[in-house]
Amino acid sequence: RGERSRSDDLYFDIVTNAELGKFFPTDYGLRIPLFFSYTNQVSTPEYNPLMPDIEMNSALANLSRNQRDSLLRVTQDYTTRKSFNLTNVRKIRTNIDKPVRPWDIENFSATYAYSQYYHRDYLTAISLQKNYRAALDYTFSSSGETFIEPLKNVFKKKYQSLLRDFNFNLMPSLLNFRIDVNRIYNENTLRDNSPDNFLPSMGTLYNKNFTMNRIYGISWNLTKSLKLDFNATNYSIVDEPDGRLDGLKRDTLWENFWRLGRTTDYNHMLNITYSLPISKIPGLDWVNVDARYGAQFTWQTEPLLS
Prior knowledge:
- The protein is mainly beta.
- It has helices spanning 56-61, 65-75, 161-164, 248-258; strands at 7-19, 30-31, 33-45, 77-91, 108-120, 124-141, 174-190, 204-221, 226-237, 262-276, 289-300.
- The chain is elongated, with a radius of gyration of 32 Å.
C-alpha cells in the first residue's frame, strides 16, 4: 500500500556549460571552458517536528513573519549544492610557423574548481562542505634541437674528429612544472532540540585538509653524447588554525600558503647518460659504449607533536 508524502518538496536545478573563449577574436586562440551548476532542495514537513501533533500550517498561522522564518529554518530540510569549474584554461598556438620558446604563454594552462554543499534540518543546524582545487601547469617541448659546433671548421683532418665534433646545446628538450592545490573544509553543528538532553553540547566540529603538490621535470641533451634527466616531486601541507577562519586566523593561513606549505614528502631522481666517443678513435668506429649515472633522494618529515 502506497503512502502519501508527509512533506511539501520544492526542487530547483540549473546546469550550464560554456566556452568563454568564443567571446574573444579567433586569432587570440583562447580556450576558457566553464561549467556551473546550482541545486536547491527544500522539504517542509506536514507536521511540526517540535510539536509532532500539530500540523505545520497551524503552527505557522498565528506567527509573525520573523517568527515563521525562524520556525521554518529549524524544521525544514534544506539543501543547496554549488559547483563552478574553469578547466584547462589556455592559449593555443595560432602561428604554427613561429618557433616554440620556453617563455611562450602557450606553454601554460590553469584550472580552478569550487564546490559547496550546505544542509540543515531539524537535527542539524549546519552541515557545510567546501572543496577548492587549483592547478597551474607549464610544459615546454622543443620542436627541434640545435647543437653548436664551434670547432667544426678549425679541425678538419680525420684523426681530429674528436675535437672537431665537440658540441653543446643551449636549449632543453623538455621542461615541465605543475602545482596542484587542494583544500577541503567541513563544518558540522548539531541542534539541541530536546529539553531532556543531559549530555554536554559538542559545539561545532571542523574537519580541514589543505595540501599542495609540486612536480618538476627537465630533459636536456647537453651535447649529442651527454643527456640529463631530472624529476622531482614535493608534497606539502598548508597548516590551518583551528576553528572557523576569521581575522588573524585568515592572515595566518595565507602566510602559510605563500610559503608553499610545510613539506612532508620530497623525492627526486637524476639520470646522466654519456656515450663515450670511442667510435671517434681510428679503428674503433664499430664500438659503442654508454655510461650512466643515476641518483635518487627521498625525504619525509616526522609527524607533528600534538
